[in-house]
Amino acid sequence: MNTRVLTGITTTGTPHLGNYVGAIRPAVAASQRDDVDAFYFMADYHALIKSDDAARIERSRLEIAATWLAAGLDPARVTFYRQSDVPEIPELTWFLTCIASKGMLNRAHAYKAAVDKNTAAGEDVDAGVTAGLYMYPVLMAADILAFDAHQVPVGRDQIQHIEMARDLGQRFNHLHGHEFFVLPEALIEEQVATLPGLDGRKMSKSYDNTIPLFAGGKKQLRETIMRIVTDSRLPGEPKNPDDCALFTIFRAFATDIETAAFRQALLEGLGWGEAKQVLYERVETDVAPMRERYEALMADPAAIEKILQQGAQKARAVATPKLASLREVLGLRTMHTAAMSTASSKAPAKQGKGARFASFRDADGSFRFRLFSAEGEELLLSKSFADPKAAGALQKQIKTLGATAAVLQVQSQGMTLELEGEAVATTPDYRDEQARNEALQTLRDALDQLAAQD
Ligand code: TRP
């Protein structure tokens, strides 16, 4: 089975070298592996928590999409989409909100930092804190759990959020007696975790010390690199490569051999001005071809939009059935399936991991029932009976049947269950043969589960 790797990028800024080295480049590399099923998305709902500047968010979405594509992301291979194009994410956010403990959210770093700041300033603890900031980890958990991601590559500052996603997934699984969600793990790339910025601190927009990746072209790249802070050693004096941002940035782009040569040159007294020129040229070698693609993409936003729409479709092909099964277990089924299910109205989870029947009365007054898998997938719809007892008797028969004894006639789109040569129930129609075969397996499992119950 492939590992599903999922990560989100908040769309508030313009990508810089730190983003490229720390997130984009490793993510693109991972997406090219055959054993990885990559889901990468723009967290534009998260952006709304941080910024109410619509123009900035809009620009950032475009720039980030173009950057990832220019950096080599293949949208045919990965699922690349915008959070705001997947309505199942906010829907799941609410389901998770209803089981999230407030105490857990009180402990979230970002919220706690705001509280601490307010406390220090003698303000009300929650001054200026939106419910959006408070709920940030739940939205993020929904991003991850909706797609059953196994691994989530993130920076260290996000580890707590992944733990909360696990916590929420586990809580839901436990409450409803079934493994609805895969529990995700944070993936921290030790080697590339952080790039220093102009002043030597972590390169970050909030420190205003970033080197832009594409913005401003190569001129801007060079000028910014020339502003990297160094010590005051003169040309000819040996420099300490292990204590300078310049060298660390160089190493992030260069091969081992290039790095060793640069180290040697610094030790031998290469002047800072020249060293910066070497760094600029090395970075530009990698960035130039990407910048060309980036500019072409930026000039054609409609093409990017199309790619993202296709990505959303792929993402929803996973999330829509997932949310449908969650609605089932939460008691949000359609009325006609829920109506007469008195005998089986106990939540399926509380009965254990089994398949279950749900009886109902058709519009014409007749009695019918459906069979659902433990996950809430509809498997069978019975024929109509004038007499509820006859419907009940058929349920009993099906219950004792088991998969081996069941006669299932396979048609092009669906299947029919036969008892003594008579069709008594049908499956829904399936999209294709593969879906039908999967459903057949689920149905056989369900029949076995029923036979094993009581
Ligand atoms: N909070 C993440 C960040 O700021 C972005 C993000 C949102 C994310 N949803 C996600 C990352 C889901 C991984 C998975 O970096």
Question: Please, could you describe this protein's structure?
Answer:
With 454 residues, this protein is an alpha/beta fold. The chain has 3 domains: 210 residues, HUPs (Rossmann fold, 3-Layer(aba) Sandwich), CATH 3.40.50; 82 residues, Orthogonal Bundle (Tyrosyl-Transfer RNA Synthetase); 121 residues, Roll (PH-domain like). It is 50% helix and 13% strand. It has 16 helices and 11 strands. The chain has a 6-stranded antiparallel sheet. A 3-stranded parallel sheet has the order 1-2-3. A hairpin with a 5-residue loop joins strand 7 and strand 8. The longest helix is centred in the C-terminal third of the chain and has 30 residues. It is elongated, with a radius of gyration of 28 Å. 36% of the residues are buried. About 2% of the residues have low confidence. The structure holds tryptophan (TRP). Tryptophan binds next to strand 1 and helix 7.
Name its key features.
454 residues, alpha/beta, Rossmann fold, Tyrosyl-Transfer RNA Synthetase, PH-domain like, 3 domains, 16 helices, 13% strand, elongated, binds tryptophan
